[in-house]
Amino acid sequence: MLTKRIIPCLDIKNGRTVKGINFVDLRDAGDPVELAEIYAKTGADELVFLDISATEERRRTLADLVLRVAEKVNIPFTVGGGISSVEDVDILLHNGADKVSINSSAVKNPQLINDLVAKFGSQCIVVAIDAKQIEGEWIVHLVGGKVPTALNLFTWAKEVEERGAGEILFTSMNHDGTKDGFANEALAKLSTELNIPIIASGGAGNMQHFTDTFIEGKADAALAASVFHFKEIEIKDLKEELKRNHIPVRL
Amino acid sequence: MKIVIIDYGAGNIQSIKFAFQRLGYEAVLSKDAEEIMAADKVIFPGVGEASSAMKKLRESKLDKIIPTLKQPVLGICLGMQLMCHSSEEGNTQGLGIFDVDVVKFSKDVKVPQIGWNQITNLKSDLFKNVKEKEHIYLVHSFYAPLCEETIAEAEYGLEYSAALKKNNFYGTQFHPEKSSEVGEQILRNFIEII
User: Fold this and answer.
1) Residue B65: which CATH number?
2) Does any domain span residue A249?
3) How many domains is chain A partitioned into structurally?
């Protein structure tokens, strides 16, 4: 049976993990490769690296990082952040990334989704959508949730699927950072209306939140950062708890 | 031990090369027919879309070489699918090594299937020291139905082939290079006991 996935997300700046890493057993708390190896060994199903650098050398630094991660890590990983062209994706996949995630560039140029899918296949193209609920309506936002667009979440998600994306990573800006649980109502609607996997993101605070997002939110995978980085939740404990709640997991 | 990964421009080749490196083996990338024929073990990778991958294979004339190989050959993901008789994806004629037609998952399940599923009914030394129901990582929209050449099964809306074998040819729908310790055991088996 296909299991539900648990995905730690690492924020990367200039090839280093940014913040919120509190692993006492790390030799170098800023080294994404070392952290990724630990997550791979302790039960993570997949990893996401989100690059938030804004420098000129960003592309090369990220490509180098991908190569170093691929060398050491024996589980799949996705790379996102600032990816805006077929050439960007080509080098990242060539260096060993399993999937890439695009966000703002897809909103600005939806044809990019079709172009990437035609060249690399649906299976490696994730579209990340940040949305905020404003007066009852879910509105797609850009730049980490700062800039609203005219797009409705569900309309945009449907278009993303039709253009061939293999997966959607949905972050609720209302829930992100609150540790109050995932946006399960919106997630369930996405999961029901679409026929591609949905990754839930934003709001993880405790183990019950993961159970809820898999059952009520019908999510296929759940992504979180700080609860894992600060060891508030151990992935192994989380998976045992999910298993007790009859959610299929890889243990 | 010479391991050659067929490099025809349609694969996550780096990941496979690194997976062997973690096991202590150096794998070489090649599209040279003589080098491939001289290898002890051949890996046939593939990601992306079937008809364009098959086109690349034909352009490099490797479509004629691969079915004639005598040493153990392991096709991975799309590599395995291209070793089949045909694929519904892009209406593609395959290499015809495995006598089965690859078809698309129905709309009753989410497509692509992405994630960790279990392998059962294991029937080959490829799975030595691998337990029934171990988890492996898959990403795919098309599948090979169960057939006489099935050596491992997975379930996604229906039972299908997670791995195939015919004579010296092996194929896995899953990615052993991304399947943690279980995948490493399978790759080690392919190198050391097949």
Assistant:
1) 3.40.50.880
2) no
3) 1
Boundaries of domain holding B80: 3-192
Residue A250 lies in a domain: no
Mutate to test the interface with B, among A90, A98, A168 (most CBs of B within 10 A): A98
The model carries a pTM of 0.95
Those residues of chain B that have pLDDT short of 50 are none
Number of domains forming the structure of chain B: 1
A40 contacts B19? CB cut-off 8 A:
no
- Residue in chain B closest to A219 (alpha carbons) equals B110
Q: One of A45, A51, A88, A130 is an active-site residue; which one?
A: A130
How far apart CA B194 and CA A245 sit, in angstroms, is: 41
- Rounded to two decimals, the ipTM of the complex is 0.94
Amino acid at residue number A62:
L
Q: What tens digit of pLDDT does each residue of A187-218 get?
A: 999 999 999 999 999 999 999 999 999 999 99
Give the domain range for residue A35: 5-244
Q: Is A193 a domain residue? A: yes
Q: A133: domain CATH number? A: 3.20.20.70
Q: Give me the half-sphere count of Cα atoms (radius 13 Å) on the Cβ side of residue B143.
A: 28
Query: Alpha-carbon distance A205 to A245, whole Å?
Result: 18
The CA distance from A206 to A203, in Å, is: 9
Inform me whether the pLDDT recorded for A132 exceeds 90: yes
- Sign for the CA dihedral angle at B87, B72, A94, B115 comes to positive
How many angstroms away from the CA of A181 is the closest CA of chain B? 23
For this structure, is B175 an active site residue? yes
C-alpha A226/C-alpha A205 separation (Å) is 9
